[in-house]
């Protein structure tokens, strides 16, 4: 550190003013502050009791630190202010403390107690900040305190504090590496954390402290993969890099088969393969034949979950995913990264620089990937030179027989550039193209020969050098070029070029036996006027000619050597003397002279023109080591693939740990839920079963947007697995599942199908529309159809898949859904009979009534009737059976109120599975939308939940915990069920305010022993409640909701709903709306409003001749309108 | 990870240093200065420089080098991306990220750096979290602070860090609720000597300025989303929704942000809105050269091409240029040999041209290269790819926001080879 402190030390000992009081008169401080400008007064200011003075002093001190000035002698005065109440003073003191504590260890201890106090603060942010500063103070003596604090914070309630603890781990480790073992324990604990906030930081700590302990990752692998998308971007980079390494140790090389099948000409993709001997390969090939490669589902999981991150705005994340794909993905899938990497080329030049380096390495091994983007690597005159040279490298790597002509044309323009370094690089690139692609070698040579007449020395020199290299490869074919170059000596003045030509002639004098002596003759004439390097080459040429053709050139050589003997340059004199001794036999010539010919005319190896990026890929791409092509400190080698896969079951975790959900936001990919059995082959059967039992109705997820991460329970894993497999069709070794099936389970399939059907019928008590299923499976003879069928299955079973052929499968699934809707009614009816009796509820509510309701709720707000959030239409506990609505339409009953504690669902209410009894370990939970107003809060949708205890033990303390909701959504939990005896069933009602969105509400369902992650996702029709209005009112409202708020669709009515009754029934079962009386029998009108915000939803079905009809939905909320149209359309067309 | 940060100005002075772990002597920058000297142009300094004990990773922005010192393996892009984020933050805070601005606000800079990195690992990089922690300096606040002695450090704790939408503060309030979106497309093109297009691509961004109260949930849909070939999103965009429906659905950050950047598939033919006729020749043996340039519009769909600026790096041998511009003004810098011509708006009836002669150094041989012509232009109210926003909807809040969408086409890296 430079310049010593400029402040006086006269006050050095007087800083004992005691505990400063905190002034509350900022104004006076402001006035005084201008008087204290000299550094001597800083201490006085710090000791004063005015916060503003302190602040001013601290600011000046921090400015000094920022400039690199030493402010360490102020330490005693500053450290006292660590407890200052002014938050900015405090922060600046922290800055100072962290900077100088290392130098003033004893004094720094004074501050520790403040932080220890902070660690106990009830506010999580204060706890975190205390830990952060405490761990940043590099004072060895407090290591035990830090250790304790970290351990405590690691089990803190707040994820933010735990994150800070994770940050503190590497700090402590760098301070005292002996704490490693204890720290690993903390890391292990934090790795198990389920929040996205912690994940990135703890993996970073893992990488710094114990990157070799890969075993710690096993249990957390799937969780990390699933959380990845929601982790903050910096954490993503670290996690992806770590997972790349992990995957390399745990999975098999996905390209093992392909690399064996490759022609010998093409190199294997991974460096590791090259090392293997041929025998080994043959052996492996035999092995591979016996046992086809099947990708570990966890491997697939990683690839799938990282893919969307290619769209990140953060270049580091994109690069991390790119390297992961490059190192881990099957060959056929690596291509997806090219587009994203090319996109990064638009970024800052530093980013371009790093990306191009990596692209250059990739293009050597995987040229095809970037070929379509060739033009993106064309060079602009404004690019910085280092970028130009890298682009050139990439272009050269991409060159092949088909595109070489375009590339060469492009190179021609580059040669005219003003940037001479770049021109030189271009010439070398041409040389490389010429060596790699035989067809253009002559063209390139001719082009380069023309460049020999360039005015620029650099260009000529470079050309000559490159020509030299090219000729060295096959000199015998190109004696005419050598002759041509010999002629050039008359014109070319650039010494470097002349020298190179002379070297060439000397080297290949045997190919031009007539010209060579003549050139020497000419050169001898001009020897004295030549540049030094040329002179040296003339001597060289003379020596070589003397050795091969001494008859013709003896005298010339003597002449040249004599001239050189008296040259001004001692190098030349020395060389002449040395060569004369070597070649001219004299009586006392040394032992070397007889080897002179060997020495001079030794066969010089042809220079290899290859990319400097060759073999760089043994470094992990994207790493610093790769960029520098040298191992950087702390670099973790990318391990080779294992020969045989380690036991995949190490990644299995108990179910409850697995179903982790993200913080709620994005869940871009959160659809994957593992089942441990998934990985075991033996459990395939079981898996199939599971697939069957999946919740059936959650197809609506396409509309549900982002928060799907937790929407289905664990067994949807298999479904989504199959979905995404088909998504990646076209990839060589895509899906273990589909392959598995197509190979071994052709026959089993049929049985299984049956089994499944049976299962469905018995298990669910709901018709699963086998009619849809069986044609589907029958037609699936080839693997492809099977795949598709499976996808449909997957879909129906409630997993979301990002399939590309969505529409197709969508229609399939929707068909099946609505079919089951209709058919299931009777079944469910029967099933529900044992529950509370179905009462005849008043289907309609007079407006008067609703007004009255309102009055109770908000007395002051009488006038504001229509769009207010809480016009509760049906009175409490009134229950609307949609089928009854149709029967009783037009009535305006009010008083049929009944008050059961649980509400009986009507026959047509669909139940959805919340927790399957197998997943729930005997606890089965179903839910339905009871279409009942939720009494505690009118904005909530009532969800009736039915618990069934299928175990032999009692289940206690059933309650909801830890809801993870979209912003604005709320949950009113049901009262805790204290006891659920074996075999019993209990029904409760909870309220969820979905905020008029179909996004799922995620929460944990807890028993006294276990926790289950569950989610409830409402169909759009359940987000509304009926509104009763007259025809005129309806028309009026509809008139106000025209234009954008109106969505119309033409449709053909299904067979079963051609009459009015059918239509009404279908519509009311699809959406919780009520019929509006209507004069015309050609039209059915329905009205409802959304539960949460009370926005009107008007539905009109106008029937026309035949079965044609028009459906119109008027709603201010476009999304709801659109989705509703879709749902009703489905209901009506079946 | 990042050990220290040094800020170096163009004259090679370190004017700010910050250490996150133990102190690294500033002499480590000597290696950087060496590399800087070797580089012919400022932007040719290698972004990564190895030294015996450290690695220096630097970015150059606004003529300031941000040099990060790291000690062990770390993805270089991680550091580079972070440094750019730092610069963006400074720009956001101080308007300009110049040496003077940083020096004036050194305390704020220090506080920011302290929050952005913890032990060298990025902690809070979202601008709204930072703004909650440290208020950006404004003139008014500076005045108030000096008088009252109050601080520009946020009183409340950074609750945003705990949020599930870390890019948005809670409790945002505006009286005018507005959401503006700028669709800006840049044409990157290389046109060859004969006027044919060698390569042309469209790179677009949608920059948003959203000032909406509460927690609005926006959806933006396009008429023709299939145009977009490759996209990258602000973290707020729900990827799944895009995959499934090609709709941008997001809870926006507060204020200015880049919602989306995209690339229009190169399969689509790119309309080149201007053409250039040029004749730049140097005769052997004479010390004169001819310079003729005419610009004209084409494929502009009736929109005017505005703010046209032509620049060209003439060969070193050119001593002076004696030209005549039919429109606008031209300048020639005899030192850097940079010719710039500020054309303004192209009038299709009367095409702008620049003609005249160049004088060459006496005795110098004819320059063998021809200069590249770089063109900048703007076309308002048009996205050249034809991308159109269909509609913008807001959910989750009850008020009616004011919505605006603006289109613009600009020249990106638009070069004409001669």
TrEMBL record, chain B:
The keyword Transport applies. Pfam families: Adap_comp_sub (PF00928), Clat_adaptor_s (PF01217). Keywords: Cytoplasmic vesicle, Golgi apparatus, Membrane, Protein transport, Transport. Residues 176-417 form the MHD domain. Coiled coil: none annotated. GO terms for cellular component: clathrin adaptor complex; cytoplasmic vesicle membrane; Golgi apparatus. SUPFAM superfamilies: Second domain of Mu2 adaptin subunit (ap50) of ap2 adaptor (SSF49447), SNARE-like (SSF64356). Gene3D superfamilies: 3.30.450.60, Mu homology domain, subdomain B. Belongs to the adaptor complexes medium subunit family. This is AP-3 complex subunit mu-2. The lineage of its organism: Eukaryota, Metazoa, Chordata, Craniata, Vertebrata. The gene is AP3M2.
């Amino acid at each position: 550190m430079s310049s010593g402190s400029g402040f006086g030390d006269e006050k050095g000992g007087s800083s004992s003013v005691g505990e400063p009081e905190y002034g509350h008169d900022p104004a006076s401080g402001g006035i005084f502050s201008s008087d204290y400008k000299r550094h001597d007064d800083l201490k006085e200011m710090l000791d004063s009791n005015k916060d503003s003075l302190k602040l001013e002093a601290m600011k000046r001190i921090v400015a000094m630190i920022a400039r690199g000035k030493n402010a360490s002698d102020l330490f005693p005065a500053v450290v006292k202010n660590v407890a200052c109440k002014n938050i900015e003073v405090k922060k600046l003191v922290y800055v100072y403390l962290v900077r100088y504590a290392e130098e003033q260890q004893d004094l720094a201890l004074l501050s520790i107690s403040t932080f220890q106090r902070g660690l106990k603060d009830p506010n999580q942010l204060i706890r975190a900040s205390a830990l952060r500063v405490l761990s940043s103070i590099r004072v060895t003596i407090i290591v035990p305190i830090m250790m304790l604090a970290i351990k405590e914070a690691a089990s803190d309630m707040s994820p933010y504090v735990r994150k800070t603890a994770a940050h503190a781990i590497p700090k402590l480790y760098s301070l005292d590496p002996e704490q490693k073992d204890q720290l690993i324990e903390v890391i292990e604990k934090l790795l198990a954390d389920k929040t996205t906030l912690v994940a990135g930081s703890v993996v970073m700590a893992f990488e710094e402290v114990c990157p070799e302990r890969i075993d710690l990752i096993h249990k957390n692998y799937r969780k990390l993969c699933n959380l990845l998308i929601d982790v903050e971007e910096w954490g993503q980079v670290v996690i992806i890099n770590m997972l790349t390494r992990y995957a390399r140790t745990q999975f098999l090389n996905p390209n093992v088969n392909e690399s064996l099948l490759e022609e010998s000409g093409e190199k294997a993709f991974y460096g590791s393969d090259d090392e293997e001997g041929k025998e080994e390969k043959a052996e492996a090939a035999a092995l591979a034949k016996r046992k086809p490669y099947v990708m570990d589902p966890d491997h697939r999981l990683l690839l799938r979950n990282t893919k969307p991150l290619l769209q990140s705005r953060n270049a580091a994340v994109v690069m991390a995913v790119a390297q992961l794909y490059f190192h881990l993905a099957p060959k056929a899938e690596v291509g997806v990264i090219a587009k994203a990497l090319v996109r990064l080329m638009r970024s800052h030049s530093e980013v371009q620089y790093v990306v191009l380096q990596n692209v250059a390495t990739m293009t050597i091994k995987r040229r095809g990937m970037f070929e379509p983007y060739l033009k993106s690597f064309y060079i602009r005159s404004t690019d910085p030179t280092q970028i130009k040279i890298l682009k050139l490298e990439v272009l050269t790597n991409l060159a092949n027989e088909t595109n070489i002509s375009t590339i060469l044309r492009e190179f021609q323009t580059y040669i005219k550039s003003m940037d001479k370094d770049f021109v030189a690089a271009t010439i070398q690139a041409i040389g490389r193209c010429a060596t790699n692609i035989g067809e253009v070698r002559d063209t390139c040579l001719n082009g380069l020969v023309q460049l020999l007449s360039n005015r620029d020395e650099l260009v000529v020199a470079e050309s000559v050098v490159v020509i030299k290299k090219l000729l060295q490869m096959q000199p015998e074919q190109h004696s005419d070029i050598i002759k041509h170059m010999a002629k050039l000596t008359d014109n070319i003045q650039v010494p470097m070029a002349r020298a190179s030509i002379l070297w060439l002639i000397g080297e290949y004098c045997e190919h031009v036996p007539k010209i060579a002596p003549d050139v020497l003759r000419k050169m001898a004439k001009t020897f004295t006027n030549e540049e030094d390097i040329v002179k040296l080459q003339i001597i060289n040429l003379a020596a070589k000619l003397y050795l091969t053709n001494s008859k013709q050139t003896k005298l010339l050589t003597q002449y040249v050597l004599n001239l050189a003997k008296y040259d001004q340059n001692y190098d030349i004199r020395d060389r002449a003397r040395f060569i004369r001794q070597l070649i001219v036999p004299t009586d006392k010539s040394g032992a070397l002279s007889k080897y002179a010919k060997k020495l001079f005319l030794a066969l010089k190896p042809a220079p290899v023109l290859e990319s400097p990026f060759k073999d760089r890929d043994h470094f992990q791409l994207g790493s610093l080591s790769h960029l520098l092509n040298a191992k950087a400190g702390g670099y973790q080698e990318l391990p080779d693939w294992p020969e045989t896969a380690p036991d995949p079951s190490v990644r299995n975790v108990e179910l409850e740990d697995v179903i982790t959900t993200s913080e709620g936001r994005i869940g871009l990919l959160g659809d994957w839920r593992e089942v441990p059995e998934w990985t075991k082959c033996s459990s395939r059967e079981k898996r199939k079963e599971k697939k069957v039992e999946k919740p059936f109705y959650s197809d609506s997820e396409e509309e549900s947007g982002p928060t799907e991460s937790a929407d289905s329970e664990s067994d949807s894993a298999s479904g989504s697995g199959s979905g995404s497999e088909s998504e990646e069709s076209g990839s060589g070794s895509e899906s273990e599942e589909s392959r598995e099936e197509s190979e071994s389970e052709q026959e089993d399939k049929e049985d299984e199908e049956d089994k499944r059907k049976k299962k469905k019928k018995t298990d669910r008590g709901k018709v699963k529309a086998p009619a849809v299923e069986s044609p589907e499976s029958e037609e699936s003879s080839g693997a492809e159809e099977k795949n598709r069928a499976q996808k449909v299955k997957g879909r129906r079973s409630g997993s979301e898949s990002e399939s590309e052929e969505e529409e197709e499968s969508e229609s399939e699934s929707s068909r099946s859904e609505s079919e089951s809707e209709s058919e299931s009614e009777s079944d469910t009816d029967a099933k529900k009979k044992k529950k509370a009796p179905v009462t005849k509820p008043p289907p309609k509510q007079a407006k008067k009534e609703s007004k009255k309701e309102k009055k109770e709720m908000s007395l002051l707000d009488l006038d504001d009737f229509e769009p207010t959030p809480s016009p509760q239409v049906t009175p409490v506990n009134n229950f609307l059976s949609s089928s009854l609505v149709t029967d009783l339409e037009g009535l305006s009953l009010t008083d049929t109120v009944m008050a059961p504690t649980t509400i009986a669902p009507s026959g047509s209410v669909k139940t959805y599975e919340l927790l399957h009894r197998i997943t729930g370990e005997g606890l089965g939970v179903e839910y339905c939308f009871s279409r009942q107003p939720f009494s505690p809060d009118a904005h909530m949708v009532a969800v009736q939940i039915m618990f069934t205890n299928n175990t032999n033990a009692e289940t206690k303390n059933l309650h909801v915990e830890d809801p993870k909701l979209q912003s604005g959504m709320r949950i009113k939990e049901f009262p805790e069920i204290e006891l659920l005896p074996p075999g019993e069933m209990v029904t409760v009602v909870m309220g969820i305010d979905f905020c008029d969105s179909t996004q799922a509400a995620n929460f944990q369902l807890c028993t006294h022993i276990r926790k289950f992650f569950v989610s409830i996702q409402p169909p759009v029709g359940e987000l509304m409640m009926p509104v009763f209005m007259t025809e005129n009112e309806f028309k009026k409202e509809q008139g106000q909701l025209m234009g954008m708020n109106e969505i119309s669709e033409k449709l053909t009515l299904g067979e079963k709903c051609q009459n009015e009754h059918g239509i009404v029934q279908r519509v009311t079962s699809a959406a919780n709306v009520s019929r509006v009386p209507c004069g015309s029998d050609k039209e059915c009108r329905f009205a409802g409003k959304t539960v949460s915000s009370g926005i009107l939803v008007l539905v009109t079905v106008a029937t026309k001749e035949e079965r044609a009809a028009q459906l119109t939905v008027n709603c201010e909320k476009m999304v709801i309108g659109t989705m509703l149209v879709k749902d009703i359309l489905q209901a009506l067309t079946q | 990870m990042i050990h220290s940060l040094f800020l170096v100005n163009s004259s090679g002075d370190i004017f700010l240093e910050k250490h996150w772990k133990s102190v690294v002597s500033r002499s480590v920058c000597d290696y950087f200065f060496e590399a800087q000297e070797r580089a012919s142009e400022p932007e040719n300094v290698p972004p990564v420089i190895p030294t015996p004990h450290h690695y220096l990773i630097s970015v150059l922005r606004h003529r300031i080098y941000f040099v990060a010192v790291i000690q062990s393996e770390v993805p270089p892009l991680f550091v580079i991306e972070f440094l750019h984020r730092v610069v963006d933050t400074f720009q956001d805070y101080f308007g300009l990220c110049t040496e003077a601005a940083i020096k004036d606000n050194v305390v704020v800079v220090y506080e920011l750096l302290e929050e952005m990195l913890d032990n060298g690992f990025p902690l809070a990089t979202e601008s709204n979290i930072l703004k909650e922690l440290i208020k950006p300096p404004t003139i008014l606040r500076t005045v108030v602070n000096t008088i009252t002695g109050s601080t520009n450090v946020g009183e409340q704790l950074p609750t945003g860090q705990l949020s599930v939408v870390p890019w948005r503060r809670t409790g945002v309030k505006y009286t005018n609720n507005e959401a503006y979106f700028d669709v800006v497309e840049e044409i990157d093109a290389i046109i060859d000597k004969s006027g044919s297009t060698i390569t042309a691509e469209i790179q677009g961004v949608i920059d948003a300025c959203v000032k909406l109260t509460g927690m609005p949930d926006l959806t933006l849909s396009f008429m023709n989303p299939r145009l977009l070939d490759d996209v990258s999103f602000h973290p707020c965009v729900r990827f799944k929704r895009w995959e499934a429906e090609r709709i941008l659905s997001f809870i926006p950050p507060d204020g200015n942000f880049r919602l989306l950047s995209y690339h229009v598939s190169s399969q689509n033919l790119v309309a080149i809105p201007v053409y250039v006729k040029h004749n730049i020749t140097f005769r052997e043996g004479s010390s004169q050269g001819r310079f003729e340039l005419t610009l004209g519009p084409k494929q502009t769909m009736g929109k005017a091409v505005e703010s046209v600026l032509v620049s060209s790096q003439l060969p070193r041998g050119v001593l002076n240029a004696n030209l005549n511009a039919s429109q606008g003004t031209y300048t020639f810098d005899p030192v850097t040999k940079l010719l710039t011509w500020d054309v303004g708006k192209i009038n299709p009836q009367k095409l702008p041209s620049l003609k005249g002669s160049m004088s060459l150094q006496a005795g110098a041989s004819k320059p063998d290269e021809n200069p590249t012509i770089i063109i900048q232009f703007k076309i308002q109210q048009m996205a050249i790819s034809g991308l159109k926003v269909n509609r913008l909807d807001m959910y989750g809040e009850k008020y009616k926001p004011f919505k605006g969408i603006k289109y613009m086409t600009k020249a990106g890296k638009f070069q004409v080879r001669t």
